[in-house]
Amino acid sequence: MGIENTRTVFRGRVITVNVETVRLPNGHVTDLEVIHHPGGAAIAAIDGQRRVCLIRQYRHAAGGWIWELPAGKLEPDEPPMQTAKRELVEEAGKTARSWSYLGAYVSSPGVFTETVHLYLAQGLDSVNMAHEAGELIEVHWLDLEQACAQALSGEINDGKTALGLLRARAALQRDVT
């Protein structure tokens, strides 16, 4: 198993697209189109009233406005936890005293190397937000149960957000029992 040849067909600001000739575990050799992405972190920030911070953000590639957890891509050599802390400040204007790792999420493993690290943040304090100029973001606080219901119904259709909400709720339920 392994990569026998790589041909880069596009190198952008965030992603690199390769055609990779790989030998699969069964010995078969095939060409695969692989989009390399540095990965990211997403945060389920829960306040003292069990409300979760959700971002309503304009995403051209998704066709408009969608609901997301605060999240962002890893910068070079930046650990996922540091990304999570930075993005919570930038997008939600919050810091947290308590952090729990909720595991990783792979968004589209057939073609995409992106792994998103999910976190639960509690003990929140307000700070100044620092939205980037190209971000169209509205910050909302929803009851966690309502947000989870929206994830299960498909109203929240972003994968990292749906999974992050459900994992956060499960982690909080474990802490109570």
Structure commentary:
By secondary structure, the protein is α+β, with helices and mostly antiparallel strands. The protein is built from 3 helices and 10 strands; from the N terminus they run E-E-E-E-E-E-E-H-E-E-E-H-H. The protein has helices spanning 80-92, 144-153, 159-176, and strands at residues 2-11, 16-23, 29-36, 40-45, 51-59, 64-68, 71-73, 94-106, 115-126, 137-143. A 4-stranded mixed beta sheet has the order 7-4-9-8, sandwiched between helices. A hairpin with a 5-residue loop joins strand 2 and strand 3 (29-36).
β-sheet strand percentage: over 45%
CA-based shape: globular
Order of helices and strands: EEEEEEEHEEEHH
Strands ordered across the widest β-sheet: 7-4-9-8
The oligomeric status of these chains comes to single chain
Report the mean per-residue pLDDT as an integer: 96
Number of helices: 3
What is the percent of helical residues? 10-25%
* Low-pLDDT stretches: none
**Which structural class do the helices and strands define?**
alpha+beta
Question: How many individual β-strands?
Answer: 10
Through-space gap between termini: 44 Å
CA radius of gyration is 18 Å
- Profile the largest sheet: 4 strands, mixed
